[in-house]
Amino acid sequence: MPLTHFDEEGRSRMVDVTDKGETVREATAEGYISMTPETLQLMIDGKMAKGRNVFEVARVAAVMAVKQTHNLIPMCHPLQITGVDVYFTPDREKSKVDIQVKVKMAGKTGVEMEALTGVSVAALTIYDMCKAVDKSMVMGDIRLMKKTGGKSGTYLREE
């Protein structure tokens, strides 16, 4: 399958979706940020010096990032996002926070990049709010888990 963000001469371009039909588009992305057990406990207890509720600040940052993806990724279309859900699941055993972002809209192009951007910015926000006590945090495994809608149909990651 050819790369759609390049024309026949190899010049980059934004894909023309003018003639595509609108469908309901959904995407779910996931990732994590790992940290020391002490940092995780401070987050859970709401005792981080930079903000009591790190999770809520990161949730708002993720939603804002989803809505601004077209300003960050050069070939993304500006979209009328109709829904964003952000979930954080602390994992004490592995000393990490799992992050999940679900994005929904009706339109002519998918929302995978928006979901992936939301996870990335949520993790970066957690890092920013906790770096004073833990600079060793690691973000990783940011990946598309599911996407529905459009001509290519449903994609479901098999793990």
UniProtKB/TrEMBL annotation:
One of its GO terms (biological process) is Mo-molybdopterin cofactor biosynthetic process. The keyword Ribosomal protein does not apply. Residues 14-150 form the Molybdopterin cofactor biosynthesis C (MoaC) domain. It catalyses: (8S)-3',8-cyclo-7,8-dihydroguanosine 5'-triphosphate = cyclic pyranopterin phosphate + diphosphate. One of its GO terms (molecular function) is cyclic pyranopterin monophosphate synthase activity. InterPro entries: MoaC (IPR023045), MoaC_bact/euk (IPR047594), MoaC_sf (IPR036522), MoCo_biosynth_MoaA/MoaC (IPR050105), Mopterin_CF_biosynth-C_dom (IPR002820). The active site is at D128. Pathway: Cofactor biosynthesis; molybdopterin biosynthesis. Substrate binds at M75, C76, H77, M113, E114. Keywords: Lyase, Molybdenum cofactor biosynthesis. Its EC number is 4.6.1.17. Catalyzes the conversion of (8S)-3',8-cyclo-7,8-dihydroguanosine 5'-triphosphate to cyclic pyranopterin monophosphate (cPMP). Belongs to the MoaC family. Homohexamer; trimer of dimers. This is Cyclic pyranopterin monophosphate synthase. It comes from Denitrovibrio acetiphilus (strain DSM 12809 / NBRC 114555 / N2460).
